[in-house]
Amino acid sequence: MKSKEVEHQKDLFKQLIENESFKKESCVLKTMLEKSNWWVAEDGKSLSCLSGEICNCSLGLKNKGGSARCRKLLEALPKRAKRLKRPVRFDCGVEKFGVAIPVIQGDKTYGYIIICHSKNEISNDAIELFINFLDTLIRELQKKLELSKLYETIRPRAIALSTIHTIHRIISSTLNLDELLPKLARLCLQIFRAEKCCIVIKSSSKKPIIIMTVSANSKGKGSSSFSSFCKRMLTKEKVLSKGRILSTRSKLCVPLTDEDIIGAICIMNKENGTPFDIFDKEILLTLSEQAAVAIKNAQLYKEQESITIGSIRSLVAALDTRKAGSYKVRESFVRLVTALGKELKLSAEDVRSLRYAAILHDTGQMAFPDELLTKSEKLTGKEYDIIKKHPHKSVSIIKHLVFLKPVIPIILHHHENYDGSGYPKGLKGDQIPFGARIMGLASAFNAMTTKRPYRKKVAVDIAISEIKKNSGTQFDPKVVGAFLNVIQNPDLLALIRKGL
Q1: Parent domain of 138
Q2: Structural domain tally of the chain?
Q3: Residue 231 pLDDT level (bands cut at 50, 70, 90)
Q4: Which residue in 247, 256, 244, 238 sits closest to 280, CA to CA?
Q5: Digit-coded pLDDT (tens) for 413-447
Q6: Which is it for strands 108-118 and 37-41: parallel, antiparallel or unpaired?
Q7: Is residue 284 in some structural domain?
Q8: Is the Cα torsion angle 225, 229, 231, 232 positive or negative in sign?
Q9: Does 424 sit behind a cis peptide bond, omega within 30 degrees of 0 on the bond before it?
């Protein structure tokens, strides 16, 4: 018989003896069988008294060495009951009676119940009723054990499916590696109830770089010593180089694989002190597969973003070749726009889009002649109508760059006014994209504090007063409130006053 099956039978027999229904039924039978002692044996060898009492039958009291012979008799009874596959009666001496009952279910014998030293003879009907009771109870316990085993089998699959769903949500929520990795690490802590997690990603030089370590008792990153420990351990155990799985009582580490090994995830120490098991391993492997896809996507996004930034720099370089004064992106302007985005609690992606928009919002000026852009006199109505087309011109230049798609509505509508008096669509209030409302305020402030061919720059304090004055008309009051907080930054003010 296989060891697992033996363990299953022992577990079931133990549950039978400890079951409340069995205890109640045996109490009823004990009342009928005065002063009886009850014994149990799992395998016919190990014998234990249910009540915890020493057998005090007359055989043990009156005859020298009787106690030893009594126990020898009791230990022999299960063998007979097993061979005969039925209850075995025996004489306990001095008109005392006993019976050995095998606990049988199908072709399996789970154990033995021995009743001895009974003052009353045990009737066949009583034995039959007790056997039927045992049969019914053991069937119920079998069902419970089967359900428990089924649950233990299904549980990791259910958790794995839930994990996949959660990671899909994480993937769709961000393509920023710096945001993705902490989320994955915290998810590991939550699923496995682990105290620590580290995620390691290989660099281009094939040397491991600790990207994220998280401890359950810390909101931020884990300690540098923990990071160093992770790096040494994963290198030593060849999780990173050979893709081996490290599984111990307190550690579980699996590689992150996407064609090649790109890194590893390691969790340590369950909060309740229990060891990591085969189910934890299965779930972490499932998580690592999905995490590898998410990390690879984020890496590809970062590469594409680098290409995008290169394209932006090329456009800016082209704009810088225009005549002096026609176009110049000030560092203070870009800083102001991104600071406003952060002050207004925008996501990292939205702040990044604002930054790109700040650099590219006037690229449409490339389509206009230098004479128009550098004109020192007031523009004619016709010339102003041409200038008003620059948002559309800007969009036509950048629309083919996929990663700049979120930037388009910001650039297109950054000259819309909150009261609907702006251009190109005359949008009003919440109709104007929020990023465009931020850009519109920053652009107006930048224009006032920058020297133009047709006018001198305005003092910063005066420009701030103009922004406050036009709150609710030209500008969104919410954005104005954020601006009044941000503009107090001394470093930003220094840049603005220097014209940088």
Answers
A1: 3-148
A2: 3
A3: confident
A4: 247
A5: 888 898 888 888 888 888 899 989 998 898 888 88
A6: antiparallel
A7: yes
A8: positive
A9: yes
Query: What is the helix, strand, coil percentage profile of the chain, to 5?
Result: 55, 15, 30
- State how far the Cα of 372 lies from the Cα of 393, in Å rounded to an integer: 15
Strand positions, DSSP E, 248-290: 251-258, 260-270
Query: Do 484 and 344 lie in a common domain?
Result: yes
- Angle (CA) 47-49-50 rounded to 5° is 125
**Given this model, what pLDDT does residue 500 score?**
65
Q: Would residue 154 count as lying in a domain?
A: no
| Mean of pLDDT values over 226-238 | 77
- Given this model, what pLDDT does residue 59 score? 41
Which amino acid belongs to residue 284? L
pLDDT at 303: 77
Query: Can you tell me the distance from the alpha carbon of 384 to that of 169, in angstroms, rounded to the nearest whole number?
Result: 47
What confidence score (pLDDT) does residue 478 get? 92
- CA dist., res. 430 & res. 298, Å (int): 32
CATH number of the structural domain spanning residue 494? 1.10.3210.10
Distance, in Å, from the CA atom of 490 to the CA atom of 335, rounded to the nearest integer, reads 12
Record the pTM: 0.47
Task: Decide: helix, strand or coil at residue 246.
Answer: strand
Is the predicted pLDDT of residue 292 greater than 70, yes or no?
A: yes
Whether residue 93 has pLDDT greater than 80: no
Q: CA 477 from chain center: how many Å?
A: 38
pLDDT, tens only, 146-161: 777 776 667 666 666 6
Closest CA to 25 of 118, 160, 135, 163: 135
What token pair was written down for 444?
A: 């107006």
Position 316 confidence tier, pLDDT thresholds 50, 70, 90: low
- What 62-68 contacts at long range (C-beta under 8 Å, 24+ apart), as own/partner pairs, is 62/94
Distance CA 244, CA 478 (A): 54
- How far apart (Å, rounded) are the C-alpha atoms in residues 181 and 184? 5
The verdict on 340 and 277 lying in the same domain is no
201 in the same domain as 133: no
- Distance between CA atoms of 275 and 374, rounded to whole angstroms? 74
Residue 243 Ramachandran class (φ > 0 left, ψ -120 to 50 alpha, else beta): left
Whether 314 maps to a domain, the answer reads: no
Rounded CA gap, 186 and 369, in Å? Answer: 55
Residue 154 structure tokens:
């299904």
Partnered with residue 214 across adjacent β-strands are: 197, 221
- pLDDT value of position 120: 80
User: Which residues make beta-bridge pairs with 40?
Assistant: 48, 113
Q: Which of 279, 296, 313 is the last residue of a domain?
A: 296
Query: Which residues are within 8 A (CB) of 438 and not within 5 positions of it... i.e. 6 or more apart?
Result: 337, 340, 341, 344, 354, 479
